[in-house]
Amino acid sequence: NLKSHAWSHGPISSEVSESLVANQGDFLIRDSQSSPGDFVLTCHWEQKILHFLIRKTVVQSSETFTRVQFSLEHKTFDSVPALVHHHVGSNSALTRCSGAQIHRPANRSLPISFLEEAFCTTGGPQCHQKSEEEEERVQPNSPSFPQHKRTEEQNSTGKPYFSSPYTSPSKNPFSSQALSLSPSPDVSKCSVTTGPYSSPSIMLHRQYLRIPAMTQDSPPTSSKDGSAYTQPHPQTFVKRLQAMECSMSAGPRRLDDGNVFLPVVETVSSFKPSKYQSQLISRENKPLEVSILRRVKELLMEVDPRKAARHITKNDCMLARIMEGTLEMQKMMGVGSGMELLTLQHGQQLRRDLLERFHTMSITLAVDVLGCTGTNEERAALLHKVIQIAAELKTTMGNMFGFAAVMRALEMPQVSRLEQTWMALRRRHTEGAILYEKTLRPFLNSLNDGRESCPLSNTTFPHVLPLLNLLEKTSAMGEGMEPWESGEVNVDAVMFHLGAARTIAQLGGIYRSNAESKLQGFQEQSEIRELFLTDFQMRLLWGSKGAEENQTFRFSKFHQVLTTLSNRLEPPARQI
Fold it and tell me: Does 262 map to a domain?
């Protein structure tokens, strides 16, 4: 169903569509005004706004059956989504003449039904003609619009037009009223499912939620002349969660199949280091046991970089619910993918678990390097292996989350200050040093600054670390601000990452397909798999008792340990 895709804007005018595609590669699909039944692809490419007609044709496949095809230039597709997915995934040009490509959808935040009513689709093209006065009076205020103009003018009934949802509380006509949401007219009562969660490692806490009715003094009305691209009172999923209360006084929602799938709010981490049984670690262990560290270093030196990258990617995708997400798990989450869950309010525990894995992975790899008390050449060889793993994660696996974690280990000040080790790397492993300094590090900086994105066709896990830090700033365990938070591009970078989150949330199916394709036929090795498990790494770093301590305390203490290890390898120069 084309209407289910947020990049399909229905009957909006060409002027409105041009205001939505503000950046290079932005695109949307709208209904054609001049050719009813056809569609128009609007995109921004090389400082120009381009419109491409997508023609709908009916093909007689047999004497009895017909099928519909959609064509753009000489290419035909069975559906408009198939056309969009082809061009986004392959980065191919829309037409040979223009060379234009599409990368990021300009998503709507209004239902198609509102747009159809607002733009008078049944009235023909004349319904879309707006005077300059009307254009000034009412402007689109969807979050995808750059203007966000506020207006206090009234329509013919005397009721105010809606202002942008981003207005200050003092100016928001609904700010003094309790926001609550009523189920849509076709939704009736139901009962909550009680099936067990498919993953035993995740403890879930159920909340029975009440959705009260929305009350307003002035109910929203839409413009009858079709000139207003109006915004209804916010009814997003996040707003629903904010309005929900722990009560069963009102009947819960019933889906078409008779089951209720209210999202389950997770309050307990997926990681259980105290209950973790390991082949490499005894039931009770102390932090940084020498024998375990030695075995970990041996395994890391022996493992093939691509095999290590596959183990890391599978663990990452399993934790983020990109892979092997059962229908029951999707019902529990309330969404179809972990990529969408981590953008929502009730995805907080998932965000925290991902941050835990990210920092634990980077610290573990840093300890592997700093704990190598041999020669500079031995440490350089281990450093080279870590660089190779980072390169495989980036290029072969398309796992930007794992790539960022491995790169964080290399960029830690305790590791980057080891001048003699890095000199040995440049001398013994010149290609690896050049790869790190000229390719990997600049690429990560571009990702963080929002100046570069990954090709969708190769990505299994997108670059969500900036988003995690933005949404869970108090829980993000790092040393100071992120690099992209303090530069000249900080505001632009933040806006880029927030915009990218909307796109990432809708592409969970593509990431899953990419991950399954790259991991097809992959057989895990028990010891290598364990090497990159977060439960194992927590036990290795903090021991059986310390692994259960407060996260902030654990990370702050361990940065002191890393500094001590680094200073032992290369004592800091004395200041005179």
Answer: no
User: Containing H/E element for 66?
Assistant: strand 66-72
CA 337 to chain centroid, in Å, comes to: 10
Q: Supply the pLDDT for residue 498.
A: 87
Give the contacts of 294 (CB within 8 A, at least 6 positions apart): none
For the chain (576 residues), the mean pLDDT of every run of 10, in chain order, is: 85 88 92 88 92 88 79 87 89 89 87 70 42 37 37 37 34 35 36 36 36 39 40 43 40 45 79 89 90 94 96 96 80 84 90 95 95 90 97 96 97 94 96 96 91 86 92 60 57 84 90 94 93 95 88 82 92 73
Distance CA 293, CA 371 (A): 8
Answer whether 73's CB lies under 8 Å from 95's CB: yes
DSSP conformational letter for 232: P
**Residue 27 near residue 13 (C-beta atoms within 8 A):** no
Specify whether the CB–CB gap between 233 and 216 falls below 8 A. Answer: yes
Last residue of a domain, one of 69, 84, 117: 117
Rounded to a whole number of angstroms, the CA Rg of the chain reads 27
Number of compact structural domains in the chain = 2
pLDDT for res 363: 95
Q: Can you give the pLDDT at residue 482?
A: 60
Name residues whose C-beta falls within 8 Å of residue 278's C-beta, 6 or more positions apart in sequence: 530, 536, 539
Q: Nearest to residue 30, comparing CAs of 22, 45, 41, 16?
A: 41
* DSSP-based three-state secondary structure for 470: helix
pTM greater than the 0.70 cutoff:
no
In a domain, 63, yes or no: yes
Amino acid making up residue 373: T
Domain boundary among 117, 140, 165: 117
- CA-wise closest residue to 117 among 220, 218, 43, 194: 220
Q: Could you write out the DSSP letters of every residue in 248-313?
A: -SSPPEE-TTS-B-PPPB--S-S--GGG---SSS-SS--TT-HHHHHHHHHHHHHS-HHHHHHHHH
Task: Give the 3-state secondary structure of residue 108.
Answer: coil
* 221 assigned to some structural domain: no
Residue 22 maps to which CATH number? 3.30.505.10
> Residue 58 sits in which domain range?
14-117
**Tokens describing residue 199:** 């993953």
312 near 393, Cβ under 8 Å? yes
SS3 245: strand
> What pLDDT is attached to residue 194?
35
Q: Report the CATH number that the domain containing residue 503 is assigned in CATH.
A: 1.10.840.10
* Cα end-to-end distance, the chain, whole Å: 72
- Please indicate, yes or no, if residue 33 is contained in any of the structural domains: yes
Q: Using CA atoms, how far apart are residues 59 and 69, in angstroms rounded to an integer?
A: 7
The pLDDT of residue 483 is 56
